[in-house]
Amino acid sequence: MDNQKEQCPKCGCYEIGRGKQAGHAAVLPLDKFFAFGSTIIHRICTKCGYVIDSYVESPSKFKG
Questions:
Q1: E strands within the chain?
Q2: Which residue, among 15, 2, 22, 23, has the nearest Cα to 44 in the 3D structure?
Q3: What is the pLDDT at residue 16?
Q4: Distance (Å, rounded) from C-alpha 51 to C-alpha 42?
Q5: How many beta carbons lie within 10 A of that of residue 45, not counting itself?
Q6: What is the tens place of the pLDDT at every residue in 6-59?
């Protein structure tokens, strides 16, 4: 990430937080049996709650 402060595209706030989904909200690979998934991380505007983006914490679990 560069040195510019990120701004929420919905409300213009500059305070962006991060959170992870709880419970059984992990993403699992489609083509692997008995695979463990990866936690989903969200970047969220702390003013309006807009979810800016989401990504998996361990993308390597989805390789071949």
A1: 16-20, 40-45, 51-56
A2: 15
A3: 96
A4: 7
A5: 21
A6: 999 999 999 999 999 877 777 878 877 666 788 899 999 999 999 999 999 989
Beta-bridged to residue 18, according to DSSP, are: 43
Identify which of 58, 60, 54, 64 has the alpha carbon closest to the alpha carbon of residue 20: 54
Question: With contact defined as beta carbons under 8 Å apart, do 13 and 48 qualify?
Answer: yes
Q: How many CB atoms lie within 10 A of CB 49?
A: 11
CB 42 within 8 A of CB 18: yes
What single-letter amino acid sits at 2? D
Global pTM exceeds 0.85:
no
CA distance 57 to 20: 9
**Of 3, 2, 1, 37, nearest in space to 20 by CA:** 37
